Amino acid sequence: MNRRAGEAAWIGALGHYAGAASRFLAYAVDVIISWSLYTLGVAGVTFVIKIVTGRSVSWHLTSSIVVAVIFAVWELAYFGYCWAAGGKTPGMSLLGVRVVRADGAEIDPWRGVVRALAFPLSIILFGLGFAGILLQREHRALHDLIAGTAVVYAWDARGARLRSLARAARRSPPVP
Amino acid sequence: MERVLDLVVQSLDVNELVQQADVNMLLSRVDVNAVLEKVDLDALLSQVDLNALLDRVDVNRLITRVDIDSIAQHTDIGAVFVASSGNMASGAVDIVRGQAVAADQRIDRWMHRLLRRKTPGLAGPPTLTSAEAET
């Protein structure tokens, strides 16, 4: 497939079901962001506790069940809030995908919360819950099926292509 | 007399006469400017039904023949595209997204082959893909 034909294939992808690579990359970005925020928050709280009480606290996930619960609640809040508020997490925004209802309508906030609650199921079942992204025609994982959602491309590739062409033309203006 | 004229006209070979005429010379003697001055363009245009004319133009077909890529590259509209949301960071994001979508489509093709699917499924949720088709 030549470059132009390849571009033509993804230019018309707006509104189509997002595939495994985009979704995995978006998730990886979200894991990095949520971990970073969690670490920053924990560092801040630890600093305050040390100043006030003079004791240092260990927040390592394996150190206590309380820390593990706090982390789980934080992850739930991060994904749940993002999906409920706008149908996309920062990672999804970066990769140009978003969560919609199975019929394509805007996601209801409660569906976003249900999706976040069901998300751990896809992981707990040895990751089998994610198999639907690869095997299903609609690329819906277990948590998508439970919440009645789907993930689609929300990226205006046509506009992006025109911007890149214009940018390239400005870098190398035509020789008169 | 009328009878004679009819006979003369019938015996004339008009095609042959036209072939012998030097049309270029004839046209060179016509003062086109004078002819145009006599034409009342406003009156002519007022008789044209523009709506009927536009109804007969297939705008969708016309638009498909427009090379938007070339417009973006060679006109100031390109600068508008770049200015609309453009910096180098957004360019890099576009590249990453494009690569991810290309990878998605490659994985999709492999899975179709692996699962021996004959027919492709829906590209996207019905409301989104039908809206896209309309635009």
Helix and strand topology:
The complex is a heterodimer of chains A (176) and B (135).
Chain A: H1 3-11, H2 20-53, H3 65-86, H4 90-95, E1 97-101, H5 109-124, H6 131-135, H7 142-147, E2 149-153, H8 157-171
Antiparallel strand pairs in A: 1-2
Helix pairs in contact in A: 3-5
Chain B: H1 2-11, H2 14-20, H3 23-28, H4 32-38, H5 41-46, H6 50-55, H7 59-64, H8 68-74, H9 77-85, H10 88-114, H11 126-134
Q: How far apart, in Å, are the first and last alpha carbons of chain B?
A: 73 Å
**What overall geometry of chain A do the principal axes of the alpha carbons give?**
globular
Rg for CA atoms of chain A = 21 Å
Biggest interface, and residues per chain?
A-B, 47 and 44 residues
User: What value does the average pLDDT of chain A take?
Assistant: 85
| SS element count, helices of chain A | 8
Strand content of chain A: 5-15%
The helix content of chain B is over 70%
Structural class of chain B, by secondary structure, is: mainly alpha
Question: Would you write up a description of this structure?
Answer:
The complex is a heterodimer of chains A (176) and B (135). Chain A has 176 residues and is mostly helical. Helix content of chain A is 64%, strand content 6%. A two-stranded antiparallel ribbon of chain A has the order 1-2. The two termini of chain A are 33 Å apart. The mean pLDDT of chain A is 85. Chain B is elongated and about 95 Å long. Chain B has one domain (2-118). The mean pLDDT of chain B is 78. Chain B is mainly α. In chain B, helix 8 packs across helix 9 (77-85). At the A-B interface, helix 1, helix 2, strand 2 and helix 8 of A face helix 8, helix 9, helix 10 and helix 11 of B.
